[in-house]
Each structure stands twice: as C-alpha cells, then as structure tokens.
Write a structure and sequence with these properties.
Helix content is 38%, strand content 19%. It has 213 residues and is of the alpha+beta class.
C-alpha cells in the first residue's frame, strides 16, 4: 500500500510536468472505452455544494479521453460560463493525458486535465471564499472522476491551472492526485436527490393519468 501511494505521488509530478527519462517506463496511454455507464453533470448549491445531478448520455464506445472532453465542455458551459457579476468567461478544459497503471486487480486510470483561464477569472470569482472554493472543488472532481461508478471513470485526476499546478489556496487544494473518495459522498447525495425527484414526478404523472382515465 505504501509503495502504491508513493508511486501515485511520483506519477502526479511526472504527469503534470510531462517529463520521462525513458519512454519505455512511461504509463501507457489509455484507449479504453467507458462502456455502459451512467454519467452525470452537476450544478452548484450554496449549502450542499452540488445540486440535483443531470444524466449525461455518452455512447458506450466513447474513449475515456473523449468522455472527459465532453464533461469538460459541459462544465465550462455551465458552472464556469459566467462570474457572479454575470460576466462571461473564457474558461475551458484541455485533456492533456489519460494513462493506465496496471495492478493485480485491475488497471487504474489517471488523467491530467488543464484548466485554461487566461483572465484568471476562476481565481478571483470561483476559488475564493469557503463556499465558493469548496463548491468549485466538488463540482470539478465529481464531474471528471464520476465517483459514484464502480470502478469510477477515473481513479485519479491531476488538475492543472494554465498549464501549472495550482498553488494551495485558503479554501481550495487541488494539488497532487485527486481521488474519487474525496467527492463520493457529496456526489451520491446529489444523484439520490435527482432520483428522488424523478420518482415523485413519475408518481404525480401516474396519478394524473388515472384521474384522466
């Protein structure tokens, strides 16, 4: 276990810098498809961090990298689209690398995603304050990691900011490898809320149908 943790920490640095002395020692790039899984996107909530989840349909044959591209576009077009001052941003996400690490039980999937923010709107408007920093953390990790899945879409996420590791802020720490367990509980709560509303809507529709008939 200690060896695995040390390997992941080392990998985080190596992946973020893109430095390999020997190409044969580099983790192999992943070409694996996502398979038949239910993905979600999320919106922010001032108390629970993530509001009701929204299902996202992606073909099972889609590669993990292409899936991350889709999730990144959804995230940029929703949560990061405008500041609280209603000013549009140019924030978007680039999937730099997706690598697989072979273990005796299964392959672990680690991705490097770069948040491009030339105007640094995220630092000023999304990462500041306790609620803002934590909400941004959960919405990014829940979206890219999809921690409700077993196994999750990603086992680890290295998040860069304008090509560099974002320094630890007062209310946000995204240095190193981010793992699914960090966001699993909040993510599952948002999905449970969505499924609960879906059941209520279905029951209401059934009662209305019976009244009409």
């Amino acid at each position: 276990m200690r060896l695995l943790i040390f390997s992941l920490i080392t990998l985080a640095y190596v992946l973020s810098t893109g430095c390999f002395n020997d190409a044969d020692k580099a983790p192999k790039a992943s070409s694996r498809a996502i398979g038949d899984v239910q993905l979600y996107t999320f919106s922010a909530h001032h108390n629970d961090f993530l509001r009701v989840a929204r299902p996202l349909i992606v073909p099972p044959s889609t590669s993990i990298k292409d899936t991350l591209d889709v999730l990144g576009r959804e995230l940029a077009a929703s949560y990061f689209a405008k500041t609280y001052k209603d000013r549009e941003t140019d924030i978007h996400f680039e999937v730099r690398r997706v690598h697989e690490i072979t273990t005796p039980s299964r392959s672990l999937c680690i991705a490097v995603v770069n948040m491009v923010d030339k105007e640094e709107d995220a630092v000023r408007y999304f990462f500041q304050g306790s609620a803002g920093g934590q909400t941004s953390f959960y919405i990014m990790t829940a979206t890219f990691l999809q921690p409700h899945l077993s196994p999750p879409l990603l086992d680890g996420l290295v998040l860069l900011y304008n090509g560099r590791i974002l320094p630890e802020l007062d209310h946000l720490n995204v240095t190193g490898i981010l793992t699914p367990r960090l966001a699993r509980r909040v993510t599952e709560r948002a999905i449970h809320r969505f499924k609960g509303k879906a059941v209520v809507a279905h029951d209401d529709w059934r009662e209305l149908s019976e009244l009409i008939l």
